[in-house]
Amino acid sequence: MRRQGLYDPAFEHDACGIAFVARLDGARTHATVSQALQALENLEHRGAAGADADTGDGAGILVQLPDTFLRAAVRFPLPPRGSYGVAMCFLPQNDPARRAELERLLEETVRAEGQTVLGWRDVPVNRAQAGAQARLFAPVIRQLFVGASDELAGDVLGFERKLYVIRRVAERAGGEALVIPSFSARTLVYKGMLTSPQLGRYFPDLADDRFESALALVHSRFSTNTFPSWALAHPYRLIAHNGEINTLRGNLNWIRARESQLASELFGDDVAKLIPVIRPGGSDTAVLDNVLELLVLAGRSLPHALMMLVPEAYAGRADVTDEVRGFYRFHECLTEAWDGPAAVAFTDGTVIGATLDRNGLRPGRFFETTDGVVVMASEAGVLDIPADRIRRKGRLQPGKLFLVDLEQGRIVDDAEVKQRVAARRPYGDWFDREHVRLADLPEPATVQGVREPVQRLQLAFGYTQEDMKVMLAPLAANAEEAIGSMGNDTPLAVLSNRRPLLYSYFKQLFAQVTNPPIDPIREAVVMSVQSLVGSERNLLDESPEHARQLVIDNPILRDDELERLRQVDSDVFKAHTIDSTWPVVDGVDGLDDAIGRMCGAADTALESGANILIVSDRAVGPERVAVPSLLAVAAIHHHLVRSGTRLQAGLVVESGEPRSVQSVAVLIGYGAAAVNPYLMLATIGRLVEEGRLDLPREEAEERALKAIGKGLRKTISKMGISTLASYCGAQVFEAVGLSTELVDEHFTGTPSRIGGIGTRELAEGALHRHALAYPAAGDELLPVLGLYAWRREGEHHQWNPETISLLQHAVRGGGRATYEQFAAAVNDDAVRRSTLRGLLRFREPDGGAIPLEQVEPAAEIVKRFSTGAMSLGSLSREAHETLAVAMNRIGARSNTGEGGEDPERFGDDRRSKIKQVASGRFGVNIDYLCNADELQIKMAQGAKPGEGGQLPGYKVDPYIAGVRLTTPGVGLISPPPHHDIYSIEDLKQLIYDLRCANPSARISVKLVAEVGVGTVAAGVAKCNADHILVSGHDGGTGASPVSSIFHAGIPWEIGLAETQQTLVLNDLRSRVWVQTDGQLKTGRDVVVAALLGADEMGFATAPLVATGCVMMRACHLNTCPVGIATQDPELRRRFRGKPEHVIEFMFHVAEDARRIMAALGIARFDDLVGRVDLLEPDEAIAHWRARGIDLSNVLRVPDVPAGTPLRRTEAQRSPLAGALDWRLIDAAAPALHDGTPVHAAFDVRNVDRTVGGLLSHRVTRKAGRAGLPPGTIRLELRGSAGQSFGAWLAPGIELTLAGEANDYVGKGLSGGVIAVRPPRNAAFRAEENVIVGNTVLYGATAGRAFFRGIAGERFAVRNSGASAVVEGVGDHGCEYMTGGRVVVLGATGRNFAAGMSGGIAYVVDPDGDLSGRCNLQLVGLETLAEADEDDVRALLAEHLDRTGSTVARRHLDDWDPRRFVKVIPHDYKRALAEPVSTGGVGFLTTETEEAA
Amino acid sequence: MGRIGGFLKAGRLEAPERAPELRVADVREFVGTLPLTELREQAGRCMECGVPFCHNACPLGNLVPDWNDLVYRDRWREASVELHRTNNFPEFTGRLCPAPCEAACVLEINEGDAVSIKQVERAIADRAWDEGWIVPQPPARRTGRRVAVVGAGPAGLACAQQLARAGEDVVVFERDEAAGGLIRFGVPEFKLEKRLVERRVEQLAAEGVRFRFGVEIGVDLTAAELRDRYDAVVLATGSRVPRDLPIPGRDLAGVHFAMDYLYDRARAIAGSADAAITAAGKHVVVIGGGDTGADCVAHANRERAASITQLELLGEPPPARRDDLTPWPLWPMKLRASYALKEGGDRRFAISTTRFSGRAGRVEAIHWQRNSGVPPFELVAGTEESRPAGLVLLAMGFLGPDPQALDQFGVDRDGRGNIAAERHLTSVEGVFAAGDARRGQSLVVWAIDEGRRCAQAVRSWLDEGLENGADHTFVSIASTRRTE
Q: Catalytic: A16?
């Protein structure tokens, strides 16, 4: 499907299951192939199907060229193996002429490249096996056999290179109609738009006994939408991938920039035929495959190439050798990382393996059998191999390579592979010798001060009072970005009359669903903000000179550091300063000229050998005005990319303009390697001089730079990016309000969907600011901005004194007349063009208006409304309950927010129908889940998408702690990601888990609008969600960094329209309700939302204002004077809101909507939904800056067959039929009936997911929160359990599993008991092998768990009450834990106890080196006290009893407490010593490093 | 960011006043301010609201949260800068304004708890004068354009100051003998000492404003002459035609308009003229319950009147804010004890005066009846009453500007007789209007705001006029220069 309206295929995401089977002896067998296909079938639940359930998103297999089979299958003779290659070709289906043309093209190319065309083979397919959609687009599949020329016969790699050249030449000539999934003498790929089970049946070849291979790589794809693409199925030629490359845009640009320098002795002149290296239109995986292929065929080994592109986090680690460290340092000078969560399985036909990204955000489990078969897969249990044939089991680990070398016949250890690659050359020495650190450059002779009066420059660069007071002073005082609260109700930059700086037009993208954001504080180990400047060299070569780069540790430069750069004078580095100002007399036209001149100056500088380009606006003065710094850097960056010279130099910005996290982030995102914000620094100096900062100047500067660095880490981590080098030029922004011309020219590749201003308007803004400063006396006051707080002469706010008081008066007796005044004031806004909906008007209906009486009553309409997710804690009890009571009374819904709910409320009208499940899982247990009408998975929050939050311990009073199921006095951290959602198929699993916990609740997923949200929503619909909420960027918050409030996310109008269009195009809209929220206030807002595609609407700020909120914006200070956003009992007494106020507001809005519906001639609200044809741009509104805005994409009517539903018309198919739990429930019937104890046994497979979930639901419905007495339901299971084994397990249930389990064991454990041990006949040692997967006991609140074996990453993450014993854990163990006990009897990975604020871990530490792997930000290490000894021994005894652990037995038999280290958080220790009293304060603040 | 939770740590404190029985013995100001340390604590009660209703309620748009914060942090000089950003004469408003800001303060949702904004404002201004921070700010460059301002009341003065600082050549014409208008001659000395007005006038003069006192436009100088000699003319003549009470006995001697009495007292206190109207020893009746009436009562108290009665046409307002009538943040309709009545005198509500009677052409008694308290003020039968009255002062508000000069200029009027001048430009080319003459009788804060905005309008108009068709995309940057 092509781009249409807001839908753009570029934003499709996929995620998947991968697996491979390999024989160590290298024997080619058909069994390998069929086992791989069987594994693939068992990964089916990780894939997905679209609206047409029979059409899969893609499945495929990569094998060694099956020589025996092929010889038998073709009629023409084949040369010996290795001397012929096969091109697997997808050719156009319905166009024989074109097909013939392409075939001719291929043949001619083969001949032109000196090879022989041996013949064609039609690949037989069984069309009936594919789904209807898939058939419609199925290509004709033919194999072209190519014989090697004499000189290449026998030269395996030489022949591969030639085949690669042929393919690239043919691909370029053939265009997108020609797809060649593989073209090799070593490997062959079969794939298609199929489900996993269909693959083997569609291609009869695969079932042929002669079809043999020693290795087979399979892949099952889950795409966020279902548009047909056979080409996008995996595997590609070298890899199959599960994950997402977040930095793709930058990687693409950098590769493009490197192309002009490519040279290779191996390819010789053929290199030119390979360019462009990347075939357009490919997915992130396809692109990565393209680049890997180039690197590998140009001479690097596959492990080498992967280590370059997907490096591990090596910084600060003791376990990385000097050679490997040197390798990474050296290669950082060659290429930025391809950053993102990824499990990449790879093979070139001789080795096969897999690697995981640096943060381990994908699962991978492997085992080796006693007879030499190695199986690796996304989960355990994909092949049923008896335990006595298993030699060992393991898992992929963050940043580690898992490699099977078929030639050597063994698994090669990560350390060995890397050491071998790293020792090829003295990379470390090269790097040490050649690189230069900024600090090592000579002291600059002079440092340029600010010559003009600071105040004048401030005026010229648009500084305001607020910049000083709200942004800079706190930045320098606290080394933290300022914190704000409530939402952003100011106009979009393009609609503002105040000429916002260019930075404000760029909205930060963030990770949601398809990839996880990173915690930049707790998982700092994976992050790096180092920057490199210099000229890059030929990527295909390596030499000491490649390391001639200047290393900058922090990309924000002080003035003296910038001067060091400018004045550098060596044979390696040469800086050139490009003036980025233009003459005022040239007026607005001067800007374009200036850009042209700067690009020319850059070219000239490069020709003369400069490799550091400093883009500087220091020349600003009475006669010269500054080019917006972002425009300057982006224009030069893209100019050089296009010229192929970008890598000859690094770009550094020296500007008076940047002064915030956002400004620096955008500059780097568009290519700057470093930024010197000289005026910001001068301003801080001035603040110090004036005594407004009580700090020495140096210290103030240092803190401000530190704060921006921290903010940068947070900004890049939101997108799941961990290194600044990858972020540089990655353009992870969406432009809102910039013209297509401007974006295409200077911000190439950035999404910009509603048009907007161009260079003329930017120039006008710059000249306007300049005119404020020149000519003038120099002592003018800075303007008041009024962005963060309303000011009469300042920026417009939708919530202002007039609208707030009118709304309050309207619900306190003012009645309809006052409401209408309110609505007029709000909608008059529209006239002033503060929102996109304000630019629209309703179209006259063809049929004319209808009488109001015919329109559905308001009492029905209000049922579509809900209040926003605001936690108890962010709101006072009084305010929270008032909203719930109001919404319940009118049949609408209120939302718990992410803070749990007091069980006392479950039984009465204070119960929130919507129960939120957020990343912190606070208060989420089986009882909470059972008491919901709707379960909402919060993927992001409008005010701070991609970020976590934090509630300091002193604010967690006993009530809040009780509701959140945590410990009073212990701080609570919400992680940025859900640790059980790193990809779309993980979300599918969580939805499944929640369905089990409460089959009658509808499942909602909350997303925040950003470009691509539509494809994410389509994926969510395919995940079986019932309801999708698309929040606008302007939603409220209890506390967020101001850069997040203002610069992340986009208006709901665009996000909702994109969602609607994508869902309708996919025919998925019929299956889900769609809701939107974000500053909705009036009936007009409601109707516009419905027309753009929303069935339902959410309100948060408005109902709060109705109850008395006056937009103090002090939620984060706990001083709310009206008792709403506070826990202070004194202030809570001031709360005067009544449910009636909220009810009256809702009814005013509904009545208002009815009046509009009558005018539109629509009687039923259902008929309003999706009728975008009833909206049109209001051309009557003239706005001097908004002229370029074009909303036609937002108003696009999707091009679909008539009758395609525009709203929800049918329920999702329940995935629960066939669940193992139905049998468990049958077995437990006596217990469920009257509590009679039961004991039963079952077999379990990896496709049996969330075992115990439905059963727990039944137990809770029967017995409530307390559940059944211990041991009432005892179940023995055998086999490999699927994901979420024992999730939400209720008290009274015990699951004992003999075998192994996958990820998320004991998720949300609510009081049950889980034990997992190997089968008794296992041939391996339990304590040395992996028994359970990643993210075990996530959000567990009570109960016990025992694992005889090793667990994966993030064991017991956010555990708040369960006790567990395990025999080894991966990285990030006990992360964010707030309560409970964990005993670790074996090895622990890195970053143990990060963000752990409560509970205790007892860790065996034989070598005494735990402190090196422990994150000591929050915890202390101690020896065991007597009480601890009792606890540990009791747990070990139970572990022994339940699992037969020999490790536990050894410890108990020979007890020595000195073997254990007690890991206890400081906060928790204090809380245990002095319990906090009631009446503290409690609200979710944003996080700060200090508090952490 | 102020003092977090400061409003919970300290309660509101009112401005100190000298005891009524003591203060009536002199004419010095009787309201003071708290010690600076206590004021800082009061300013620290401000929460720096995200939506500062105080700032919205202030006609000048005073940046209340900003300077409260600065005062709390003991940064008085910066506070003065921020205060003067929106307000040319804070020492006047800090004394005279009824403080709609405080009524709209978010803390006032709990009635009586508002931040003491007015006191803080006055203290900033007074301290700035005391410290010598307020100095003339002559313009760096002069434009050479000439502007005449007619009327030296607060609107005219604010307008003149803004224009002069922007480099315009400004002459102020005032028919009285000194500048200040109502705040000089209407407002009693004990509310605003006239030396404060004088030093501001001196500042203006030092900034280049020239004053022509005793010149009445329309009499001494015609409108045409003025328009001829100046590039622009600003009419800031006030709204000074008083509302009369045409009932029997109105012609009797001893029945005066309040303003005549106040002017007379002002001149007598200043020593510039002998008193013509006196309350000493008389039974004084003030008709009108507003501020002008209160000022009359206060003067009469200081003149030792035999008795003082203040009559209000409207009924007695409720004792506290009523949410159904004037919910927060609206200006509450409620009973306020005037400072003057604390010093002596009676107040009666819902009174319609029916006639005056007297002998030998002098008033001796007043006769009234109670009314319904709300329009149309129906008389209540059987409530007739009479009181002795030696001096009757009519303080019933004003009808509009004095028409004489306006007629000569030929400017259009609005329905209420005020000058019609949207965006301050009248129907006559180059003639502008500001203050009460344009918007009707109002508060001094409005007058200053009018003057400031009018100055901006004049400058924009002059820019356009002089540059004649040039590209104006980048012009008209309002001057916000420091005022110290």
A: yes
